[in-house]
């Protein structure tokens, strides 16, 4: 389940970039 957490952390950064 840690792999999913890491993917969410990286996806969160990409979401902020997409929001801009």
Tell me what you see in this structure.
- There is one protein chain.
- This protein has one helix spanning 2-19.
- The protein is rod-shaped and about 30 Å long.
- 90% of the residues lie in helices and 0% in strands.
- The protein starts with a helix and ends with a helix.
- The protein has 20 residues and is mainly α.
- The protein contains 1 helix and no strands.
The sequence of SSEs as H and E is H
Total strands: 0
- The class by helix and strand makeup works out as mainly alpha
Beta-strand content? under 5%
Question: Share of helix among residues?
Answer: over 70%
Largest sheet: number of strands, sense, barrel closure: none
Low-confidence stretches: none
Query: How many alpha or pi helices?
Result: 1
The best one-word shape is rod-shaped
Mean pLDDT: 67
State the main characteristics.
mainly alpha, 20 residues, 90% helix, rod-shaped
Question: Concise description?
Answer:
The chain is mostly helical and about 20 residues long. About 90% of the residues lie in helices and about 0% in strands.
Helix/strand layout:
Blueprint: H1 2-19
